[in-house]
Design brief:
By secondary structure, the chain is an alpha+beta fold. The protein has a domain at about 5-80. A hairpin with a 5-residue loop joins β2 and β3. It contains two helices and five strands. Helix content is about 25%, strand content about 25%.
Length: about 110
């Protein structure tokens, strides 16, 4: 017996009913499939626009991807990819950590930022 085949593909407005069914099975904790149908419709429309767009640099594109069972066409999962984050408002985190060095060869301070 072979395992069922699944494929990942671009999601779009045509998948609304399938994602609503998947949401009903998964429950309210599945944040990628928001409970507001209008918001889900907008998310799928933005995804279709993002996949159709040809761009030289990352921007506000949001890609929503469906996991589909090949034989039945039933949606089995999803994921999202944001082309950028923090592009509307700069966001940064930085920290400085200094500890007593237990070994003379080890670095005592570390600085990181993102």
């Amino acid at each position: 017996m072979s395992a069922p085949l699944y494929l990942m593909r671009a999601a779009g407005p045509q998948d609304l009913e399938g994602f609503k069914q998947l949401r009903a099975i998964a429950g309210a904790g599945f944040t990628s499939l928001m409970l507001d149908d209008r918001a889900l419709e907008e998310k799928l429309a933005l995804s279709a626009e993002s996949f159709a767009k040809q761009t030289a640099s990352a921007g506000p594109e949001r890609y929503f991807i469906a996991l589909e069972h090949v034989q039945s066409g039933v949606l089995a999962g999803c994921c999202g990819v944001k082309a950028t984050i923090g592009s509307a408002r700069r966001f940064s985190i930085s920290a400085l950590s200094v500890r007593r060095n237990p070994h003379p060869r080890w670095t005592a301070a570390s600085i990181w930022a993102c």
